[in-house]
Specification:
five-stranded parallel β-sheet, homodimer, 15 helices, globular, alpha/beta, 31 strands, 26% helix
């Protein structure tokens, strides 16, 4: 077995996975890993949770050290060491020891670039204030943890996954939070209505949401930092955490002349080779094939990074047995207090923007049998290709079982299932875990009913007075939470009250969850009405803020 | 729309789903449902949980009543009404009102048979004792609940899914439990080693397990009922719950001349039609195609029953748009105290018995990031077709996240995925919910490593002294829980200690979880040793009873 010189730039997810897999495949390879920061292979997804104290021990996040990687995997790890430039013609990298300032050339047979991505910090007045933080490394985490010691109020800018985790964890520390988001809803990666429960949960916990608000500048005043919004509002706080996104760290790749994509990511083939076949790349800095539809995508998350690193090592050492990276889907989830919300594949918004001919349905049910204690509602939205029925994406929100449904749908999407296939997934059912017809089955039923023409759905309540809006909820519920312009005819009395409706005018049926309105629509459609059902029910469609409108 | 006369025999899962779907598809059908018992559409899966008080309200289990089904679905429901015989030539069913004793012929255009299955009660001496119960209906449940009022000790016979739920729930009521199982392990539907954690949990809670024990007879003595085992042991208790399995209720079908399968189930085609095309059947009484491999199967569970009823109604009313039932996989799960254990598809035992050329691997990991509080181990076993890699089955056991992994694998099996596909499932990851490499990915990695020849696995520790058994766990762990005959060389010191091993003799490596032993096997294989890794580690393979052998 001939030896080989491997050089890995970046010691966290993608780089560490590459090195570990390479070692298992080639015992006598010489593997050097360099990392700009002081830590390697740390649990970056855990950073917010140590700030909030939910992960009490900082050591828990330092998964490996240079010493442990030497002992376990025989890696030569150099931390606080930066790659300065790549000399592709002579296959060597100039590295600088950040402590001594000394430069050195390291030769490679194969190079792995896993430089990651850096938090975006837009150039705006006052942004260099020392109390404005971003979160990427253990060092960043320590800075924020230190600010928490004395701070009472914080502004979190960006309500994406990290921003929500930070808001939740800072709140655990008793910090008052302003959460500012440029888009009109939190988790702008998701469709608007799918974040309503999450927004309600944030407000319920006292997080001050500023949605659709642009930050224009920061200003220091009275020992605090002021965040100025375009609306004129000024948020005063002891510190600010900025989490508006990341940009790939690709200056090294660019200067080495490697091909970059439209948005600046490193371009790789299915085996994670860059435009130079002796240089691999993995993780947040690369773009890959989109696994769902055509085109390229960049998903800066730990799962893809780890698996990409592994693919590269396989390609290097396994020959024909290596299998390519199948592309990324963008599966992601976040917990904020008691609510979980997530996505896999494409959202309706993204499909719409791309001009894809799609269909969608939203269903509500409970995470397990309703008669079993602890049943809580869950909302699931799926999108599919209109012509073929192929699943293109799913979003879920609720208190429990959200991750499970996302995982089932991520698997279904990876398998290129059609919505009809969801009807007959045979999922694990016992009362503590599910229902005889799981919400995933229900989504399949609802989608198939649409495709079979059994129901016409509408996403919005009619504002045309010609349309008869029929609320089929039980009377006490309709009385307590009335819907403007709706006539209440409970589903159980509908058949006896058809003469109250005008057959010449269209009907929209509505209920809480979208199930009874479908039942009603079937009765009406078969008795000659032109009818559509309000998809997903009131629960999934109206702001469930205060008062509850169930 | 022409009217049609539908008659449904059996008012629970399959029958109720058929009726509900039929109503939605044909508003003017006349639908009559007859049910022998006093209740329709009740939550039979919830029965054990009301006995134990976890579901406090009995009403919660009575999902629908004849009145509510009339109001909601315009069904004519007759309870306490038994189908006596079917006259296929004139398409009518003789039914008997069990209260009045009166008989009546009911005509049908289409008939649905959903009679379900009855608990097996083997003919043995003393089995007619009034304190020996089975559990199928609300009435059965009430009888057991009544026995719980005064009882202190109970024998549960059969440690399948229902038996385990009953044991757990009776224990909640302070009843001392003897749990008797004919097979050598609980949940005989699963492979033996996958039930070790469950058995440990049952014992931890004070359940007295009698495994590999046959019941020979019952005897009344001193106001108690004695259960006699073949071993000579006598278990004395206030009552007995027998849950050794079910047999399909098919006397009506048999007498009507419908085709039955080898094991007495009603034979149906993909659209749930019996050998008489005007008679459908669904639920516990039918056998269907096996969804994983060739042949027929019968899965007496609520999920399949509900979906079969729906398929039949679709076939009747949707014409070309109806899609056939894809067969059953046998996905099932049970919670016993804090442990969940389940299966989907085929077990190793079943594959072995059927002479299928399969491979299998068992992996251990945690349900979510180890650094996040509450991480608990989880064991996952997968089986696949040796030649193609196609997934054939999965089993999982652990404290949390078991249902999720079973559902992902049930989806993967339904999609006819190969083990390589598991490597790149992009599952929802945030520290509270999963890991960057989920245990499902790990199972794919382990299976792929086997298929690629990177590792040789063994399921048993060697008893041949020529084999060098190397325990690569950290020294403190190896000292505390030593493995007989093993030499401890921690993985981190292995490379420096290769000279302690004899290259002429085979090596088996072992650790707690099966991961480090794989690392070690790779080092040894690449340095010229003949080595195999103990699959799944000690945790998954040795009785984790007392003392813990981790």
């Amino acid at each position: 077995m001939e030896s080989i010189e491997l050089l890995v730039i970046g010691g966290v997810a993608g780089g560490a996975s590459f090195a570990a897999r390479a070692r298992r495949l080639r015992e006598n390879a010489h593997i050097t890993m360099i990392e700009r920061g002081p830590d390697v292979s740390f649990a970056n997804c855990g950073l917010p949770y140590h700030v909030g104290g939910e992960i009490p021990s900082r050591n828990a996040l330092a998964v490996q050290t240079p010493q442990s990687l030497k002992a376990l995997l025989n890696l030569d790890v150099r931390t606080r060491t930066e790659a300065v430039s790549i000399d592709r013609s002579s296959k060597r990298v100039l590295v600088r020891d950040l402590q001594s300032g000394q430069n050195e050339w390291l030769a490679y047979d194969k190079l792995m670039l896993a430089p990651g991505a850096a938090p975006v910090v837009p150039p705006m007045p006052g942004v260099d204030d020392s109390r404005i933080f971003t979160l990427r490394s253990l060092t960043d985490m320590d800075r924020i943890a230190s600010a928490v010691q004395t701070g009472k109020r914080a502004v979190v800018i960006g309500a994406g996954f990290i921003g929500l985790e930070m808001a939740e964890q800072l709140h655990r520390k008793g910090i008052d939070i302003h959460l500012v988001e440029l888009q009109a809803h939190v988790l702008p990666q998701l469709d608007a209505k799918m974040t309503l429960l999450l927004e309600q949960e944030l407000r319920r916990n006292g997080i001050d949401l500023h949605l659709g608000q642009q930050v224009t500048r920061f200003q220091t005043a009275n020992g605090t930092v002021q965040t100025h919004l375009a609306s004129g509002k000024i948020l005063e706080a002891d510190f600010v955490v900025m989490s508006i996104g990341v940009r790939p760290e690709t200056s090294l790749a660019r200067e080495a002349g490697l091909q970059l994509g439209n948005r600046g990511h490193i371009v790789v083939n299915g085996f994670m080779q860059t435009s130079d076949p002796d240089i691999y790349a993995a993780g947040d800095a690369v773009e890959t094939e989109d696994r769902v539809l055509h085109g390229q995508t960049a998903v800066p998350l730990g799962g893809p990074a780890n698996r990409q690193g592994r693919v590269a090592a396989d390609h290097l050492f396994l020959g024909d047995r290596a299998r390519p990276y199948p592309g990324s889907m963008g599966t992601a989830i976040v917990r904020a207090f008691e609510v979980a919300t997530g996505v896999t594949g494409w959202t309706e918004q993204r499909l719409q923007n791309a001009g894809i001919d799609y269909e969608t349905v939203t269903v509500n049910d409970y995470q397990h049998a309703t008669y079993f204690p602890g049943a809580r509602p869950l909302t699931l939205k799926i999108c599919w290709e209109a012509k073929t029925g192929r699943l293109l994406g799913a979003q879920a929100t609720g208190h429990e079982g959200v991750d499970k449904r996302l995982d089932v749908l991520a698997t279904a999407i990876a398998a290129r299932m059609i919505v009809e296939d969801l009807c007959h997934l045979e999922l694990a059912y016992a009362p503590p875990y599910g229902s005889a017809k799981d919400i995933v089955n229900l989504a399949g039923f609802a989608a198939t009913n649409l495709r079979d023409g059994l129901v016409v759905r509408t996403d919005s309540l009619p504002d045309d007075p010609v349309v008869q809006l029929i609320d089929v909820r039980p009377k006490p519920l309709a009385d307590a939470y009335p819907i403007a312009g709706a006539m209440n005819i409970p589903i159980t009395t509908l058949r006896g009250n058809l003469d109250k409706l005008d057959r010449q005018r269209p009907v929209v049926t509505l209920c809480s969850f979208g199930k009874m309105s479908y039942f009603a629509a079937r009765v009406l459609m078969q008795t000659g009405f032109q009818v559509s059902s309000f998809s997903g029910g009131i629960k999934a469609n109206l702001d469930p803020g205060i008062p509850p409108k169930l």
